[in-house]
Task: structure prediction
Amino acid sequence: MPVFSMTGFGKHSFQVKNKNYTIEIKTLNSKQLDLTLRIPPEFRPLEPTIRKIMSSALERGKVDVAIYAENCFDYLPFDEKTLLKYVSYFKKLSESQSIHSDPLLAALRMPDLFSSPISEDFSTDEIFLIESEIFQCVSSVITHRKEEGQSLKTEFQRALGEIKKLLSQIEPYEQSRIAHVRSKLMSNLKSLGDECSFDTNRFEQELIYYLEKMDFTEEKVRLASHLNYFETTMENEASCGRKLNFIAQEMGREINTLGAKANHAEIQKIVVQMKDELEKIKEQVLNVL
Result:
């Protein structure tokens, strides 16, 4: 199943009646649907429908929808008969009053000369056409989101693979880590001198207890499980952004615990590299739908 980003863009143009319309949809990441509409006055009755289309198709993100209108008259919207009447009137008036003026220019200044544009109330067929054109633009946004999502998915797979690789590199240091802790404790006891005697069996018991506190096998197992769960969720679930974010947080807890229990320089270096890869995942997962 594809991963979708919340970043997308779509642009589409169409014509209804006497106007050309251009729709632009821009989307960015956001926790919820944050929809902003900028539409011409004639589209106000369609605003609830547009909002429903956007919320249903785009689900989540900061969505900015703008519809621009441009007149495309194939004719001058004036009343020719009225114009001729005005021209005739102003011509007679200028002759009778001996006024030198252009009757056509005078007539063109009359306010009632130009007729109103075609009615801006859309018919049922026109509303259906507008909705289908909006869907086309939304489809472009979804395609863009899918392309961006594929890039995110590739980056997640790379980072997850790197963390798995780093996790496997911890194992060779585990035995040397235990031996180092044992040697350090023995050295500290011996440094106290001959006057300090201790029960060897009791020392071994305390050492076992101490090493059990330092054991991070459970953290390793849980981290590996979270890595696999992240991959499975990404492959099999739609609109999984929130869930992936939660899984990434759990991965961070396990890695932090590994670092706290490590007590070994090389393991600490590996943990730092894990954290670096996880931060890349956390940064990008916020943009997943």
